[in-house]
Amino acid sequence: MQTINLIAPAKVNLFLGVGRLQPDGYHEVTTVMQALALHDTIHMTLVSSGEQVVLAEPCDEAQPIREHTIEVPAGSGLSVSVNMQWREGIAPADITDQDNLACRAVRVLARLMGRTNDEHVRLVIEKHIPPQSGLGGGSSDAAAALIGAAALWNVDPTDQVIYQAAQEIGADTAFFLHGGSALLEGRGDILRKRYRSRSEQVVIIRPAEGISTAQAYRTFDKAPVYSCDDMLAVLHDATDASEIPLYNNLQAPAELLLPALSDVKGFIRNTTRAGNAEVNSTVADSAGEDDSVAPKDCLLCGSGSATFVVCESLEAAHALTAAARLAGYWARATSFSSIRAAQLPR
Ligand SMILES: C[C@](O)(CO)[C@H](O)COP(=O)(O)OP(=O)(O)OC[C@H]1O[C@@H](n2ccc(N)nc2=O)[C@H](O)[C@@H]1O
Ligand SMILES: Nc1ncnc2c1ncn2[C@@H]1O[C@H](COP(=O)(O)OP(=O)(O)OP(=O)(O)O)[C@@H](O)[C@H]1O
Fold it and tell me: Domains (ranges, CATH) in the chain?
């Protein structure tokens, strides 16, 4: 038996330019993704044929630790299971082991490698990234599970099969193998260039409801508004992620799907305007009086439903987080980061 620990960071899209729908059901996308320090933690154990192990795992408040027994009978092939631990007050989502993107990632990698060993991969995921938020939590868990399975199976972490598996799982997964800040095209899975990461404090604010990514794209198609070529030229010329303009053409469709998003924008504007200019003067100064315009330095995360706000200091981030929680939102102070999905040192 072998256990390793991994981190799976969240992301935001500093720039998300959705283009035309392709015959495969996916849209052409030009995006600049930026990793956050906020991350899920994954513990991954490989149990081989003939072994019987008893793992001590986190459970719930009533029973903080529980024993979990795993046996691998001969001829059973690969099996994968997961224990999801919801942290940070995130409402637990009902995800079967079969549908869990991290479990899927392990199975896809085994298939692409032609690996047919009798073995069990057990995952414990400590969830700090809320799902259906546009923060890519599930995709990042999948990327970390690929890195973890590769380490447990002695596969070179730079082997192309890992990138191939990531692309098969979903559009966002490939980014988390690179992390930091990067320009991606295609379905949002082809790396074009890397930038120096941003490093400021960020607050994530999420209303109670999530948004389905597929539904956000379908709503976009009803009245598409495309980014212009001048904007794309800026992305290709930039070397530092701080040069990237904040832009997301899924913001308007997401607001149509979820009116609570306009309330979040209003909350951010009012909080930073109403005598709290020191909370985030950048947002306050640029907010103007027009309530239909988003305050500067704040943008929808991917397809939503979370919004991120760039703050000038740790104090400003904590003040905004506290105000957002008081207003009934899920909120979390974090920062931009250069991390990626990775194994932690033993
Ligand atoms: C909104 C973003 O998070 C921005 O980074 C991504 O584009 C979404 O990436 P993701 O969650 O990994 O998406 P996937 O799980 O691959 O796809 C979910 C659904 O979103 C839609 N989808 C996704 C990516 C893309 N380039 N075009 C699409 O139309 C498709 O309907 C797809 O069936
Ligand atoms: N390990 C996982 N963590 C979270 N969600 C998962 C996981 N595995 C599968 N899912 C499913 O994926 C859906 C999207 O979750 P995710 O956290 O990736 O949302 P998202 O951030 O909106 O996605 P994205 O930004 O990639 O579009 C969830 O509704 C959930 O059913």
Answer: 2-194 (3.30.230.10), 201-276+291-335 (3.30.70.890)
